């Protein structure tokens, strides 16, 4: 019995709270860790942050990879570094086409400073090394239809730059003519049904609403200016270079008409195999083909009606609409 009572008393000690006396420190726990020790450390008084000893190509590629970073400040700083590096050097570690493909998705970035740096970067790239513009047109069409007005404005700036440096490649590439013009038609809400005949024919009309704010007005004017630039690049016929004097004499008159064609698939317009045509994604390599497609698709009539309504607003909008009308006049009526 004595041993049993002793065991019970020892068990109760674990659940009893010790009463502390006034002025007496609390006893340390049995499992307390002693943290009074200190470890030895090495102190560097001065550290060089210069990247002079690093390979410039490695630094360039590192900043190029940071364009996919989740930090917007890092993306902006990387774009600024790439722009400064391209300006200061003649030989690029990466082809300009690869740099462009990395930077194009950032035109849809939510940060305005990042998009501004993208425009600065693409403008310093060597034009001869840009390569095909198909991927650029995909991001441009996505940016033109974005919900954010600021992203639309920056995308229009990108389109203006691309048309100014590679106009023929843009309008003759797949989806660079009818599909891109159709995107502008949807953005501007221009249709071939006028408001005067809509009520008589029973059809709905789609009229561009008046700009309700300064940002919408600025966007509308920029859209008209970019459309005029695109139409001028696509509808203007490129005058062939004059033949040498010895080729303009008999019997070599009209030698260019009898020479071998300079374009691929010369007889594609005949559609000999009756394949289904995708007018939006077709490639229109000559100005005549683009003019015919522009008229036959109904875009010419729709744009003329929209321009007529836009010119009535006057001011900056009217001047931009006049530029579109001048570009449309390049299309033949045949």
Automatic annotation (TrEMBL):
Question: What InterPro entries does UniProt report for this protein, alphabetically?
Answer: ARM-type_fold (IPR016024), Ipi1_N (IPR024679)
- The UniProt annotation puts the region (Disordered) at 1-34
GO cellular component terms, semicolon-separated: nucleus; rixosome complex
The answer to keyword Cell membrane applying to this record is: no
- Where is the Pre-rRNA-processing protein Ipi1 N-terminal domain positioned along the sequence? 134-231
Gene Ontology biological-process annotations:
rRNA processing
Question: Keywords for this entry?
Answer: Nucleus, Ribosome biogenesis, rRNA processing
Domain of life (superkingdom): Eukaryota
Pfam families from the xrefs?
Answer: Ipi1_N
rRNA processing found in the keyword field: yes
Biased composition, Basic residues: where in the chain?
1-11, 18-27
What does the UniProt function comment say about this protein?
Component of the RIX1 complex required for processing of ITS2 sequences from 35S pre-rRNA.
Which PANTHER family does the annotation name?
REGULATOR OF MICROTUBULE DYNAMICS PROTEIN, TESTIS-EXPRESSED PROTEIN 10
Q: Which family does it belong to?
A: Belongs to the IPI1/TEX10 family.
> Quaternary arrangement and interactors, per the entry?
Component of the RIX1 complex.
From the Swiss-Prot or TrEMBL record, give the protein name.
Pre-rRNA-processing protein
């Amino acid at each position: 019995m004595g041993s049993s009572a002793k065991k019970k008393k020892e068990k109760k000690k674990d659940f009893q709270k010790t009463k502390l006396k006034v002025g007496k420190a609390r006893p340390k726990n049995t499992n307390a860790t002693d943290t009074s020790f200190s470890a030895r450390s090495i102190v560097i008084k001065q550290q060089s942050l210069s990247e002079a000893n690093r390979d410039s190509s490695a630094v360039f590629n590192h900043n190029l990879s940071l364009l996919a970073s989740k930090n917007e400040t890092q993306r902006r700083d990387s774009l600024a570094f790439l722009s400064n590096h391209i300006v200061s050097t003649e030989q690029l570690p990466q082809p300009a086409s690869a740099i462009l493909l990395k930077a194009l998705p950032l035109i849809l970035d939510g940060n305005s400073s990042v998009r501004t740096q993208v425009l600065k970067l693409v403008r310093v790239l060597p034009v001869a090394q840009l390569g095909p513009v198909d991927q650029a047109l995909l991001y441009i069409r996505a940016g033109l239809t974005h919900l954010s007005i600021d992203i639309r404005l920056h995308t229009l700036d990108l389109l203006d730059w691309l048309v100014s440096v590679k106009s023929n490649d843009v309008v003759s590439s797949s989806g660079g003519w009818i599909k891109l013009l159709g995107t502008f038609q949807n953005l501007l809400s221009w249709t071939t049904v006028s408001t005067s005949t809509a009520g008589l024919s029973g059809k709905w009309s789609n009229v561009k609403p008046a700009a309700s704010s300064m940002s919408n007005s600025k966007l509308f004017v920029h859209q008209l200016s970019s459309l005029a630039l695109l139409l001028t690049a696509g509808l203007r016929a490129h005058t062939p270079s004059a033949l040498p004097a010895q080729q303009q004499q008999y019997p070599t008159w009209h030698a260019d008409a009898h020479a071998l064609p300079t374009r691929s698939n010369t007889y594609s317009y005949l559609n000999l195999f009756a394949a289904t045509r995708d007018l939006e994604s077709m490639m229109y390599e000559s100005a005549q083909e683009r003019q015919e497609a522009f008229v036959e698709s109904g875009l010419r009539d729709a744009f003329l009606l929209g321009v007529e309504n836009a010119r009535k607003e006057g001011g900056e909008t009217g001047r931009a609409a006049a530029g579109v009308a001048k570009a449309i006049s390049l299309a033949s009526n045949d």
